[in-house]
UniProtKB/TrEMBL annotation:
Keywords, alphabetical: Antiviral defense, DNA-binding, Endonuclease, Hydrolase, Magnesium, Manganese, Metal-binding, Nuclease
Source species: Paenibacillus apis
Similarity-based family: Belongs to the CRISPR-associated endonuclease Cas1 family.
Pfam families the UniProt entry points to: Cas_Cas1
Cofactors required: Mg(2+); Mn(2+)
Keyword presence, Manganese: yes
Gene Ontology BP term (one): maintenance of CRISPR repeat elements
Annotated residues for binding of Mn(2+): 166, 234, 249
PANTHER family in the cross-refs: CRISPR-ASSOCIATED ENDONUCLEASE CAS1 1
Top EC group: hydrolase
Protein name: CRISPR-associated endonuclease Cas1
Functional summary from the UniProt entry: CRISPR (clustered regularly interspaced short palindromic repeat), is an adaptive immune system that provides protection against mobile genetic elements (viruses, transposable elements and conjugative plasmids). CRISPR clusters contain spacers, sequences complementary to antecedent mobile elements, and target invading nucleic acids. CRISPR clusters are transcribed and processed into CRISPR RNA (crRNA). Acts as a dsDNA endonuclease. Involved in the integration of spacer DNA into the CRISPR cassette.
Length: 343
């Protein structure tokens, strides 16, 4: 099993990343802010534009340590990785399936089944854990709608219809998202998904969570030899990690949405952790982003029992496990791709 190492998040603006021996050095105005051994890291995520030395990028590329650059508000800019280590036979199979829409749909529907199943059980757990704080009847009705949609998806082998069914399920789930916010209701509401820019505090956190999850999913897929940019549900688009977006569909609710809800409901973030821009964008402050990233790293260390493997793993290893299972399916070792089904 892959060992879960650390991700270094560089949250301060105007920090330059440099190499000294086997260490990464963080510099600002020629002053050393920090020094960390690289052998403890599996990836580096830097917020800002200052950059990294060629020596550091070459060192990390040789050792399969990815470096991802984002804007200060969490928008992806670029990712530096080493030479592809993919198995050519595995990738050729991936490309062949991606070119065939019927075969693509049969793979993609398992991603969507996993996503809707997990959304259903998020709603079910709300009725179990907070029966006096949510409208149980409304949640149960949405859960039944998701069950009916899953039945239709199981028989679906058309990509366009699959996307339509996913949209129906998303509507049933999203209309109850705001009802899962149980604390700080005066400051945190969710009405609809907004991106580029996020227009409220919840969307600001969701955008960052999805970006970080996509980063981890991309690294996991590349690590097992797959091409993260060639998907089945999400079709090819220059610069888009389509396969990473495919596989993370089943993890969006239970991994990212639940994380954002926990930050709000446990009062780990507050209205003071956000700033409103003139263009309507709502962004995390530097201190708010620090809180968010620290909690994200802590969540990745928490344990969960994988329903298919029957083993206890950390949340942070989940993208790597699902990438491995997908690779086994594409190689013909498994009859079906087993999505992560949480309950």
């Amino acid at each position: 099993m892959k060992k879960l190492l650390n991700t270094l998040f560089v949250n301060q603006p105007d920090v330059y990343l440099s190499l000294d021996g086997d260490n990464i050095v963080l510099l600002k105005d020629q002053e050393t802010l920090g020094r960390l051994p690289l052998h403890n890291l599996e990836s580096i995520v830097a917020f800002g534009y200052t950059g990294a030395s060629p020596a550091l990028m070459g060192y990390c590329a040789d050792r399969n340590i990815s470096i991802t650059f984002m804007t200060m508000n969490g928008r992806f800019l670029a990712r530096v990785i080493g030479a592809s280590r993919g198995n050519v036979v595995l990738r050729k199979k991936q490309y062949a399936i991606s070119e065939n829409e019927l075969q693509s749909a049969r793979v993609a529907r398992n991603f969507i089944l996993g996503k809707i199943y997990n959304h259903k059980w998020m709603l079910e757990r709300m009725t179990r854990d907070y029966p006096l704080r949510v409208d149980v009847e409304q949640f149960k009705e949405a859960s039944s709608q998701l069950s009916a949609t899953m039945d239709a998806i199981w028989e679906c082998d058309d990509l366009e219809r699959l996307r339509g069914l996913e949209g129906q399920a998303a509507f049933s789930y999203n209309k109850l998202w705001d009802h899962m916010i149980l604390q700080q209701k005066e400051d945190f509401q969710f009405h609809t998904r907004s991106r580029r820019p996020p227009l409220d505090k919840v969307n600001a956190m969701l955008s960052l969570a999805y970006t970080l999850l996509a980063h981890d999913m991309t690294s996991a897929l590349e690590g097992v030899g797959l091409d993260a940019y060639v998907g089945f549900l999400h079709r090819d688009r220059p610069g888009r990690a389509s396969l990473a977006l495919d596989v993370m569909e089943e993890l969006r609710g239970i991994y990212a949405d639940r994380f954002v809800l926990s930050l709000i409901n446990k009062r780990l973030v507050s209205a003071g952790d956000f700033v409103h821009k003139e263009n309507g964008a709502v962004l995390l402050t530097d201190e708010g982003r620090k809180t968010f990233l620290s909690a994200w790293q802590n969540r990745k260390q928490e344990k969960i029992k994988h329903p298919y493997l029957g083993e206890n793993i950390s949340w942070g290893l989940l993208p790597h496990v699902q990438a491995l299972l997908l690779a086994r399916y594409l190689r013909g070792d498994l009859d079906e791709y087993p999505p992560f089904l949480w309950k």
